[in-house]
Amino acid sequence: MRAISIDSGSKRASVEPGVINLDLQKSITPYGLFFPPDPASQRASCLGGNIAENAGGPLCFKYGVTGHYVLGLEIVLPDGTLVRTGGLTSDYPEYDFTGVLVGSEGTLGIVTHAHLKLINIPAGAATLVASFDSLEAAAQAVSAIIAGGIIPAALELMDQPVVRMIESSLQSGLPVNSAAILIVEIDGPEESLAPQREEIQEVLKAKGSRDVRCAGTAEERERIWYARRSVAGAIARLAPYHYTQDGTVPRSRLAEVLRKVMDIARRFGLSIGNLAHAGDGNLHPLILFNPQDEGETRRVLEAGMEILRECVRAGGVITGEHGVGLEKKEAMHLMYTPSELNVMRDLKRIFDPAGLCNPGKIFPDTEPVTPEDLPSPLVSSATAGLNLASAESLPGPGNPAAQDLRPAQEEEVASCLLEATRKKTPLFVVGGGTKVFLGNVWRGGTGRLLSMTRLSGVVDYAPEDLVLTVGSGTPLSEIHRFLAASHLQLPWGHPWSRSTVGGVLSCNWNSPGRLRRGSLRDHVLGLRVVLPRGEILRCGSRVVKNVAGYDLTKLFIGALGTLGVILQATLKLSPRPQEEATVVLPAPCLSDAITAGMLLFGDTRLIPDLLLTVSTGGDKLFEETLGVNGDVLIVSFQGRKEDVASGLRRLEERESALGTPVFSPEKGKGVHLWESFVESGVRQALDHGSDSLFVKGGVPGQGLLSFLRELDHKVGDCGGTLTCCVEIGFGVFYAHLKFSGTGSKTLLALCRDMSRRASELGGYWTLAAASDQIKAGLDVWGEMRPVFPLMKALKNTWDPSRILNPGKFAGFI
């Protein structure tokens, strides 16, 4: 199974699992594209294996791991059922099983097809090699580079034993007399390389580097990276047996943990060479040993477990990219409680009830814990007073007299859910209340509102690690204010400033600024969540690479609060850009704006942060709100000043191809236009009864343009007008449909027709905002997703009493 299908214009590839990673890279290079996950094994490893392990590699520090690039999967379950998750666009209305399957080590099913996102090959790159007199000094330099707001493409650390083993085999020119070296890769427009190199060299020298040299030619760069990727082979030639660990720690603790690794080596009388994806805090201690010596073998295994303990003590995880498998499954107890492991086993039972897929992997051999066996310490005398009959007054769904619940502590939330489960009382979870319009109409009578706004504020802030933990009720505006004085940001745009972190994640309400910086889920390192049966779970961690067990965080992002209640979120921050500029290009019509946007998106020499089209459809209210007339294409650039200048120059070069003048750039207009469009469209849909609909959908590739033309035609036939906003590069659109006296039956028929059409094209259609009269006539989430049976099974497992936002999500879950 080695087929590759490439859509270079959309920067997508569909592959079978047997495709070798390097073969994919070779296939897409002629198009100016690349697939960033580049494990050292890329010459031999298959993409199916990369997906199963959520493989990383040196470049994942800047560009992310495999999971960031997998949009959809086709898998075969153990019973022979074929299941498709996700697809070629984004934000599908379904539980994110794609995110869970990535890194599941083949224990849930067999991948038969994968849809991948590709990105542009950087215009230029440079490689530096820095020598240090100690391993700790090299590790401290890593933190200093990142603290300075610099994000290299790669930061690789090797100690002297590893370098000498490489050089004895390859003679690649690496310095063999240094205690440790750092390999630093930078990339971007050619004009940005020199300033980046100078800044990094200053930091390296300030942190004790005795020599920093830059590869002078492409051949020298390739020799350095070939040496780095050949570590395993070089060691095997000199020491046929070695035992590798794979823990990840916060970058700020890297030097400390490396020191403890060497202490462990001395204590157990072992030889260890150190290799690390230092930018990610991902350690690979290589323990050399003789398997014929039983005593030494035993010490190696004990030392390996002690290294993992130190990683966990430092706030890290037991595996960053190699997986748990059989070897590390007992170490899962170091990270997870029996309850948390049992929740992962729930997924295993849903996908593979007979235990046929890679049996024995991931889970410890200890007996699984059943929900009935779990203690309930969460309902105590301190929290019992917060019950379903008490709280401040606020109208609730289906009951004008209902009171809401406003817990202030995690244990109080757990108490509320446990009591609601026992009494089968529906709970409707809200944050800032800005997106309560989403979802199907509730038809079940009385319910209670569970407000999370009191679980607000910063819990932990580690700028040296680019990590922030906040309560789920924290408004985005509060986070932006908190970070305003720093050099860091959380790059999330949103139409409503009082929206909370928990609400934004539960609704998976992404902004078009994700084109380069990633979707919401790509910024979430970990969550604390409470399930309906009262269990508080830790999902994920506070490090950027973690493949210890199933990635449960993905399931709660976009689940509309139907699986559990988010209590805390640990988020990955990024440096604030030095510059930003936005250009607004007029277009004769929506089709021309989208065509121009796709032309720019396909330009591999142009790397914008945002490509957005807006069509006001002659709607005066929208034109006044947005400050634009007619149809426009919005292009934004952010980053280093050299990067922004390069982007603007390239845009001017494409002026003749675009057929429109390139106006002077403005600052900060791009995402704000989208925010205003969505806020205005939703408000009109809610204020104007049955004459106004607001829709969000997605259609991949070239099908988007034909779909929107068809939609415009059908809306016109119904006597309506269409205003539209399109995220170029993702195929996601937002549309306001305005009518005058058109009957509800006609509008429902229109929604059903367009939902079917979107599904036929590999996309989706959701009725985001409308009157209850319209929404009550259909499932607002559109056509039933292929993965719905698994969604239903998970909902019934975690919320059998259906208390959390019942009926609100797709398929009336």
- Helix/strand-derived category reads alpha+beta
Going by CATH, the homologous superfamily of the domain at 580-775 would be FAD-linked oxidases, C-terminal domain
Q: In which order are the strands of the major sheet placed?
A: 11-8-10-9-13-14-12
Poorly predicted ranges (pLDDT <50, ≥5 residues)?
371-402
Sum up the overall morphology in one term. globular
Instruction: Estimate the mean pLDDT confidence.
Output: 92
Strand content: 15-25%
Please give the share of residues in helix.
25-40%
- The number of strands is 30
**CATH domain class name of the domain at 580-775:** Alpha Beta
What can be said about the biggest beta sheet?
Answer: 7 strands, antiparallel
Our count of helices gives 27
Distance between the termini: 36 Å
Quick structural gist:
This protein is of the alpha+beta class. It contains 27 helices and 30 strands. 34% of the residues lie in helices and 21% in strands.
